[in-house]
Amino acid sequence: MFDFYFEIPLVIRLILQGLAVIMVIFPIAGACSMAERKVAAWIQDRPGPNRATVPWVAWIPFLGKFLQRLGVFHVMADGGKMMFKEDSLPGHVNKFYFVLAPIVAMIPALTTVVAVPFGAYFDAAGKLIPLGLAPLDIGMLAVFAVSSLGVYSAILAGWASNSKYPFLGSVRASAQLISYELSMTLAVLPVFLWVNAPGTEGTMGFARVVEFQSQPGLLGGMWFGFLMPISAFIFLVALFAETNRQPFDTVESESDLVGSFHTEYGAFKWGLFFVAEYSHMIVGSGVFMLLFGGGWNPLPWVSLATAVEFLGTFLSFAHAPLFVGILSIAIFMGKVLAMIFFFMWVRWTLPRFRYDQVMKIGWQKLLPLSIANLLFYAIAIALIQK
Amino acid sequence: MAVITVERKPLTFLERTYLPQIAGGLKTTFKHLIAPKKTLEYPEQRPAIPVGYRGVPTLVKDPNGREKCVSCQLCEFVCPPKAIRITPGEIPADQADRAHVEKGPQAFDIDMLRCIYCGLCQEVCPEEAIFLQNQFSMSGYTRAEMVNHKDRLYELGGTLPDAHHKWDKKKAAEEHGNAH
After folding, report:
1. Which among A101, A131, A265, A298 could disulfide-bond with A270, CB atoms 3.0 to 4.6 Å apart, if both were Cys?
2. Residue B52 domain-assigned?
3. Domain of B78?
4. Considering the entire predicted model, what is its pTM?
């Protein structure tokens, strides 16, 4: 029934797919800023934003009131405000790089999505086909390579702002991001050592990692989060630092740096930095879930295939590729959103580390730990896989 | 005072990892996340005003619907920020029900941009005519709007129960002779 789609030239098809993914990520990033306000409010015993509404939705008897209380329309109000505010350009900035910085922030944030598969379906032969924009074999490398470009936006913004606090903030950002990138990279190596068993085709792609977590048996069905808890922990901590989230919020620490690299920004350019931050969080959470959280498998020891088989006993269409695809995307998105909730929950729990503590944790604690972790798993995997 | 030296224990390994404390903190915040909210949703829900609250100053009428203020101007003189401005006036002869009232204000303005809600006017008033009542939100778009004139002050004040019935007693004394 979807044959017409495959008759469209490949380039146009890819553009459509890319736009579709961006159309999902962008609103989610916007909704995350709303969720952030809501979670903050709930944790602080407040109801949070709950006033904005649209007349024709308010007329729906029960749902309209519920959506209003949930603050859904504040997303549009916030976005609309951001669009129509005066986009001021301070006189003392380097105009070219000042405008470039938010664009540089957005590009890597949205580009990393390309390498991340977000679902899967089974073809006629029962083979698992991952759903993603580009099923790259270098998946993890691509994500690392592109996402670390994000630091350039902070540096550019801080430098082009031509003022003290943004500059300090950008210096902090670059130092912090470089420090934690090391531990992050070392933390995921055991996963790929394990996945690239001798005799198999080498890959850095995510699909294989998820496949490894969906095998039968006690060890096979175990998510890598249980198999390699230290790796998962280091990756998670580094992810918090890489996305500049609390408690590693030193880059933006408004109490000592006003607003850091976005001090001089306003309106839509300022908003772009935050959409980029949330996109980073979404992609980072996605990568974490693929590597350590079982990807699109609903539960540990319950793989997607098992789940589909179970649903097939009472749903006639359960084996249809379309249904499996949507189911897997829903499971994966659910996990990613749970991660994002965790990010927010941590943000409203922990105070910010001091900058020297950030550096100390990064270089003196996490890096040795990740090296020891890598050595341990390298030896263990060598012994197991021989 | 004897000095008590408190031994400062070195942090244990677990404490230095921050992790048990972080877990404890997450537990606490999660409890608050699902706990009932503690805020008041203001325009719909109003706070309970305690007895003796000093809100916007208002003028009140007696149970017969007559102005109580006799424009003695004590409040005007006592008012620390000089927010009150009174123009004294006579009671018109054609108002029979007010015949025994001594005087009344021709104009009575309280500038709410100056008022400090101290309540001295209420305290000083010999006629119990001015009260700081429960209204706490006072807003306007212009300076002129923020000046409460006499009609507005009576509208805000309404009628309060009165134990003295001063003018009724005066009228009765005039009509039936003084009992003393």
Report:
1. A265
2. no
3. 57-159
4. 0.81
For residue B83, is it within any domain? yes
Checking if the pLDDT of B180 tops 70, the result is no
CATH number of the structural domain spanning residue B118: 3.30.70.3270
The answer for B96, left when phi > 0, alpha when psi is -120 to 50, beta otherwise, is alpha
Residues B26, A349: C-beta atoms closer than 8 Å: yes
Q: What is the pLDDT of residue B178?
A: 65
Q: Which chain B residues are within 8 Å of A345, Cβ to Cβ?
A: 26, 29-30, 33
Of the pLDDT bands very low, low, confident and very high (cuts 50, 70, 90), residue A2 is: low
Confidence of residue A106 (pLDDT cuts 50, 70, 90): confident
The total number of structural domains that make up chain B? 1
Q: Which residues of B touch A44 (CB under 8 A)?
A: 32
Give residue-wise pLDDT tens across range B106-141.
899 999 999 999 999 999 999 888 999 888 888 889
Question: Is pLDDT at A61 greater than 60 in this prediction?
Answer: yes
Q: Do B29 and A45 touch (CB under 8 A)?
A: no
In a domain, B119, yes or no: yes
Residue B107 lies in a domain: yes
- Residues of chain A positioned with their CB less than 8 A from the CB of B29: 43, 345, 348-349
Report residue A272: phi and psi, to 5°: -60, -40
Yes or no, beta carbons of A45 and B28 under 8 Å apart: no
What are the tokens at A261?
């690299």
Tell whether the torsion through CA atoms of B164, B170, B172 and B176 is positive or negative: positive
Mean pLDDT of B79-98: 86
